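Each record in this resource describes a single protein on a pair of labelled lines. The shape at a given residue is found from the number at the same position. The record below illustrates this layout:

***
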Amino acid sequence: MKKALNIDEIAYDANMGCTIVRHYLDFLIENGLAEERSEKGKTIYAITERGAMVYRILNFQKYIEKLTKSLRVMDDASQLIPIISKGTDDDKEDTEE
């Protein structure tokens, strides 16, 4: 896991303004997904174990959705192959006559 970051570092990495990041951090902290710490007089933020678990679940869900989409495409293609092959066979018969 990445080290804890201050709000400026998070905003820079996320390409967002500090005010918006603060809003999201408040939500994450309220829901136990991130925590605020004080280190060497600076306020830093880190993901909690619960936050890491939610992150992994969301990534797995994205993976499953991508896999499902790929399987649908493969299923559609497998249904088209016999139709395309039949058309090719008909063309061969026409040229042989």
User: Anything to note?
Assistant: The first strand starts at residue 34 and ends at 39. The chain has two domains: 7-47, 56-97. The mean pLDDT is 87. Residues 56-97 form one domain.
